[in-house]
Amino acid sequence: xxxxxxxxVKLAAVTGARRGIGLAMSIALAQAxxxxxxxxxxxxxxxxxxxxxxxxxxxxxLPFKVDFSDRTxxxxxxxxxxxxxxxxxxxxxxxxxxxxxxxxxxESWDRIIEIxxxxxxxxxxxxxxxxxxxxxxxxxxxxSLLSFQGGINVPGYTxxxxxxxxxxxxxxxxxxxxxxxxxxxxxxxxxTDNTQxxxxxxxxxxxxxxxxxxxxxxxxxxxxxxxxxxxxxxALGCREPLPPLIPAxxxxxxxxxxxxRCYEFRCLSIDDRTERVSIQG
Length: 281
What we know:
With 281 residues, the chain is of the alpha/beta class. The chain has a single domain (11-192, 218-247), classed as 3-Layer(aba) Sandwich (Rossmann fold), CATH 3.40.50.720. It has helices at 20-31, 49-56, 71-81, 106-134, 146-149, 155-175, 196-199, 202-210, 224-231; strands at 11-15, 35-40, 61-65, 88-91, 137-142, 180-185, 245-251, 254-256, 262-268, 274-280. It has a 6-stranded parallel β-sheet, sandwiched between helices. The longest helix is centred in the middle third of the chain and has 29 residues, at 106-134. It is globular.
């Protein structure tokens, strides 16, 4: 592998690593040479698909089982994580609960905000302290198309993912000058457990598919390469505060994110200037 894209001797912590986007991202990082700390609410201590994949690539694997809806458990795990020399943190853990806003249970709202937003700030804060001390590190979040579009019947999820988009900008503004790059990927409709209800709804699935230029739902592995590009040495440096990079695609006038293997990067700098560059992959 080109040394500019190699992650050899790096240690990456990935949340939500057991399945879907997190699983694909963990495998991509291991393929690039990184050792993996895999975290999930249902992570197996022994044999697992992720362990087999990572160790099969000759990399080290350390699993942790954490309930991200439990604030105390997350804080305790953050203390453990801060004892390791983390080079890369992938904040990917997330959940979704669907019901119209008028009847959306406050318990569901609280749970989704805790998992998708609060826990990610807690982990970032803990890991960033060591990253800043050594002057380098990369943190990447999973935002969402709904960070910009809003969605239907998922008020808690949309609020959390919109919060992630803002948090990424805030952390980038503070930490980039200290050597810590903070970015986000905003995937479109990806075929995972979180979107199974939409995939199983013939009308919604058809409507969504018709809006995707490639004519199909994205796969978790479709966006692993984009994340990897942001985490590699070849990515933009952090000598000046870096903006969040959001892979997007212009559809019907909106700037949306879709896993289409063809992205437009919208780079929002802290002084609100906008640049665009297309990448074909």
